[in-house]
Amino acid sequence: MANGRDRREPVFDAPAGEAGELDFRLSPEDRAGGTMARRRASSNGGGPRRAAKPRKPKRKGGRSLLSKLVYAGLVLCLWGVIGVGGVVAYYASQLPPIDQLTVPKRPPNIAIMASDGSLLANRGETGGRTVTLKELPPYLPKAFVAIEDRRFYDHFGIDPVGISRAVYRNLAHRGGLQGGSTLTQQLAKNLFLTQERTASRKIQEAILALWLERNYSKDQILELYLNRVYFGAGAYGVEAAAQRYYGKSARNVSLAEAAVLAGLVQSPSRLAPNRNPDRAQARAELVIAAMNELGFITPGMTKTALGTPAESVRPNGAGSANYAADYVMDVLDDFVGNVESDIVVSTTIEPSMQAAAERVLVDELDAKGQKFNVSQGAFVAMQPDGAVKALVGGRNYETSQFNRATAARRQPGSSFKPFVYLAAVERGYTPDMVLEDGPVNYGGWAPKNYDRKYRGPIAMRDALALSLNTIAVKLNMEVGPKAVVQAAQRLGISSPLQANGSLALGTSEVTPLELVSAYAAFANGGTGVVPYVITQVKTTDGKLVYKRPGSGGLGRVIDRSVVAMMNEMMHNTFVVGTARKAQIPGWSLAGKTGTTDDYKDAWFVGFSGSLVAGVWLGNDDGALTKRVTGGNLPTEVWHNFMKIALKDQQPVALPGSERFRDDVPVAGAGQDPRYANAGNGDNAWIPPQPAPQRRASREKNFFEKLFGL
Q1: Distance CA 34, CA 540 (A)
Q2: In what order do the strands lie in the sheet with 601-607?
Q3: Is 196 marked active-site?
Q4: Burial class (CB in 10 A: 0-12, 13-18, 19+), 68
Q5: Which has more confidence, 295 or 33?
Q6: Residues 414, 508, 517, 657: which is the catalytic one?
Q7: pLDDT score, position 131
Q8: pLDDT tens digits for 658-701?
Q9: Given this model, what pLDDT does residue 684 score?
Q10: What global pTM score does this model have?
């Protein structure tokens, strides 16, 4: 082994002029010595360690790059969470404070019921009353869960699984575009938000859904949803929708109908069963399939529902019950004030009479309207005590909601004459008194009879029956226009009346409702009435809000003897006068036709001892009819209605009819319970006495009487 002195260092020869290059050169001895040394170290298990191989330099961008990516990802996620939290906090701040948040009250529904307890119409913003889950058939709420949110009872208001499923199906284009909103989110939108489709609204919707889930049970949320969701056609809530599309309560819908309603909420306009029955049925089949898949219904129920598709009801006729419902709403405030909860209003409207009134009016206009150039009409029928039994405000409610029965003031023509004759009888005139039918002229005003003829001496009863203008004008001037106005107002005419000479010809406008109610005093024996349609109002849980008192009339406004004479003269209209073709065998009837002198308006108001009815025909724009008179079309409408309304009823005599007919039993105040209060207020009014003498000199004061000076 060579010692240290014999050790040779490697020679580093660098070629001249080449700096920086190194050449490792070992002598053969050094190489041999090194080899032997390694062998000895290997055999002896020791010796100098093998020289470590030089490490390869690390690559730039290896593990350090991965670490950086992980780090960057964590930072980005953190900032994302902070950003999302900030966005959520911002939009949450736009909502009312959570601790002050409450479910807004559902707008109250007003259910208007007919006299037999059937539903006439719903009024209010929702179109139907609130219902509870326990009132509904079990399959109805389950239908909504199956098609709208099958994981409703499993999620916490937001359903990540449902959202993921909707995203997948949308990307895969399976089944059309789908949303991931839960029923709770939909309810939150309906309760608190607008219908706009924006990210901000969706964030707020999610926040509110979480709040709802925290504060309400699942069943409460589902019940709120069913009563708030929109079904189209102005129907909010499942009860309103069931009434609108199937004419029945949601409590009574079939499984097939429930499936249609559940499918409808996706697109109320596109899937409305009354407009798009095929689409509605296709959607309903999906609902039924989903219910079967989830085990909500049995295979047998599934088969039955698919085999008997639901059929929506179509409104019959012209929808005139809505005119009656509108009238109820007009007067409701007078009795109950502000409505804060669902109420049920019981009315006097009788469905059979309402349907008959609509039918006869529409049929007459359809058959003869074009020929006679008359397009509109109104009809009112009431009991003699003022209870409105039928009210039609126009030809078709969908076409025009203007209620001509209650709001249209039109000239009554000769149908106003009974008030003139009433004022005259109260001053001593009698039906037998002979008057002179001849030309009249008051300061250049010379009214003529309808047929331009004069009959000379004529009994007063026949003058009214034949509707002679000259006699009516003379009586008006004799008793004074002011007395006529007072007589009409006493009986219930509330429209402004002009106390002048032309008042006798019905030139002051009135509504059909007030004219019919004024005639009721003749039919009931002299008691003034206030027309009424509401009998009672209750909340949906049965609490009484209002009940009509036993009597709400005006007391006695006509003496019984005067009533008898007036009814005798108006009965004569059916015997020899303008209403002869309106007679009904076995019934004692009275009434008066009315026609304006330019044929703009035609009327007939008549009554039996149990029913008063009035008809108006004309045009809304005031266009002239082609000679429509009270004695033709209106009388036909009235007659056709009364035949239906009085069918199978026992004839009731007119008050005082013993004076002019003795073949019908009289129903006096002590015999007919409807007139039990007819004698109230007998002393409230006394006819003026004695009657004035008819003197020609009275006509000299024309201008004073004409203008009521």
Answers
A1: 112
A2: 388-392, 376-382, 612-618, 601-607, 590-595
A3: no
A4: exposed
A5: 295
A6: 414
A7: 95
A8: 776 534 333 333 333 322 333 323 223 333 433 333 333 333 34
A9: 31
A10: 0.77
